Amino acid sequence: GSPLFLSLFFFFGRYYDQLCSIEPKFPFSENQVCVTFTWKDAFDKGSLFGGSFASGAFQHIKDTVLSSLNREPTVDISPDTVGTLSLIMLAQAQEVFFLKATRDKMKDGIIAKLANQAADYYGDAYKQCQYKDTLPKEVFPVLAAKHCIMQANAEYHQSILAKQQKKFGEEIGRLQHAADLVKTVASRYDEYINVKDLVDKINRALAAAKKDNDFIYHDRVPDLKDLESIGKASLVKSTPVVVPLSQKFTDLFEKMVPLQVQQSVSVYNQRKADLVNRLIAQMREATNLANGVLASLNLPAAIEDVSGDTVPQSILNKSKSVIEQGGIQTVDQLIKDLPELLQRNKEILDESLRLLDEEETTDNDLRTKFKERWQRTPSNELYKPLRAEGANYHNILNKAVQADGQVKERYQSHRDTIALLCKPEAELNAAIPSANPAKTLQGNEVVNVLRTLLANLDEVKKEREQLENDLKSVNFDMTSKFLTALAQDGAINEEAISVTELDRIYGSYTQKVQESLKKQEELLKNIQNAHQDFSKMKQSNNESNLREEVLKNLAVANDNFVELVANLKEGTKFYNELTEILLKFQNKCSDIVFARKTERDELLKDLQQSIAREPSAPSVPLPTYQTTAAGGSKPAASSTPTPAPRTMVGTKPQPPARPPPPVISAASSSSSTSAPSGTAVPPAAAPAPPAPTPGASAPAASTAPSQAQGPPYPTYPGYPGYCQMPMPMGYNPYMYGQYNLPYAPSPVYQNPGQAPYPAPQQPGYPFPQQPYYPQQ
Fold this sequence. Notes:
Blueprint lengths: L2 H20 L32 H11 L13 H25 L4 H22 L9 H26 L3 H21 L7 H22 L41 H38 L4 H4 L8 H12 L2 H44 L8 H4 L1 H38 L3 H7 L13 H29 L5 H11 L4 H44 L4 H72 L10 H4 L38 H8 L103
Helix pairs in contact: 2-3, 3-4, 4-5, 5-6, 6-7, 8-15, 8-16, 8-17, 8-18, 10-18, 11-13, 11-18, 13-18, 15-17
Keywords: Coiled coil
GO cellular component, one term: endosome
Pfam family, one: BRO1
């Protein structure tokens, strides 16, 4: 095809991939998301792609697309039409192979089979649409002509093969048939296809064959029905449409899913975190138990310390490991960094709540001043979800502070022993008391049994570390599962789907964890029994007991160092991730406060304009004896009633003052009571604004107050409530002996007080899953 067509094909292929990606994310139906796509007839003369499609695509339309239509399909994509078009595509593709074989001068027998197969495809397409008017009228003669042309080519090349086989009569019979076929095309379908060159080629070959046969071979020409049928060779088939069509497909809408799916994924992730954390906690507790048992038995140092005056190899290995990880300086630096990280998070949280407090105070002051005129949702009601979220963060930080204290206390109790492990071998050996054993136990059967059991236990712990890494690396996206369920059922049974998938994914891991725990239990029992036999064989004295106690403390110090470093690193990571969460919380607080300030300014402006439009206070009638002069004359009525005061707006918006009580003047009272009985009193004229006093400054212009720059916010009563931000899930980052951070999925809060803004509720912010601290 042309470069333009190929470019358009790849473009629309990528477009189709994106449509397939986004379709299951929306419940397209008449009672949910009702989107109607108008399909234009592809056979319209003005259509860009009239006639350009592929066989597999038509078959895909017939088998898949038509069942999804909620109305009658147009003629061009009706089942009969797309079936015919699919056959036409196959025939054209087969013809391409025929043309290539001809150009490459392949064997005539092969070319004949390719042409005969193309003729069959064209014939099948013609039969399928022969008595239907679903296709343009020029399609039928073209299909008939193509069928005849391909059949003629097959006969022509088969005649060449017959000549090569010395079958001169068969050669003439096939050429005569080919000549009849092209003659039919030339007489009936010349308007659509020009076959002059093919006619000339076949006629020349037929004339030469007849001449040779008449003068030389005299071979009998068989009837057409007696000719052996030509074989067929199909090199094409309908390729199924596999989404995505693009080789390098990138889902542009990967993160966009319906709210129901997003909530289901969030709950699934919580279930997954709980399951994985529980399995990892079981393995780590088992490992800590094994280390504690070995340390209490002074193993493996006890069976290595047969000389009594050198450092056991296991202690040297632990010392080397601690030094390679930075030793005591690493722990000191990690502990030093924690208060700074904690203070940063506290400052962000305090600033977020300060924004809410400041705006709420302003709202309360204005509500007190304007009373019932201040018609918007109170800030203290609107901020309840955010304040609950802030209180949750306060609790998290308080628990983190307690965990920091426990880690520091534990470190101080083991610091000296850890520092001893960091010493060079000579200093370490000098610090360990020496003891001369009563007898040599090297090579004893009990020692060999203990070595074997300890080696097996080490193997179990290594397998457990690999199993923990495998558990952490499992990643399965449930979005497609929930999208499929929503599209099929219109609802998501999250619990049933999640439990089934978790059992399928993690069932084998759960079984391996239980097997590991059971195997360790048996090994520890055998180790304790063997150690009892070993202890009976050793001679006990004060020096040996003191030496064994020091070696035990060094082994325990190594275990504590590994765990302290892991806990402190986990704590550092926790504070850093909490900083990101609190910054998002601060942005939410800042956004809603900005919107409330904008709303407040608009409301103040409306109140000022409303007060300015209020009519002046009416005159209060007074008794006649107070308004009638001694001579019986009536004073003139006041022509300039006192207007209601205006509230001026400067650079900083101030709430307007309430209007003063009406001013009662004698003149106006007289005017109001002197009207004759039975006469209607005309209403007072609209008051004119008072003239400015000479020398007085002009009042400030009644303009809208200056506002902070930012995105425009709609003016409406109240502000949509925010969803509470979910807390990090999984492990309490580094609290010793505690593995789960209490967390429950946050509910979606409704806007308190008033009807919510018509926009959809915002979902809770997604938060990164807390990784699990590594086991050293």
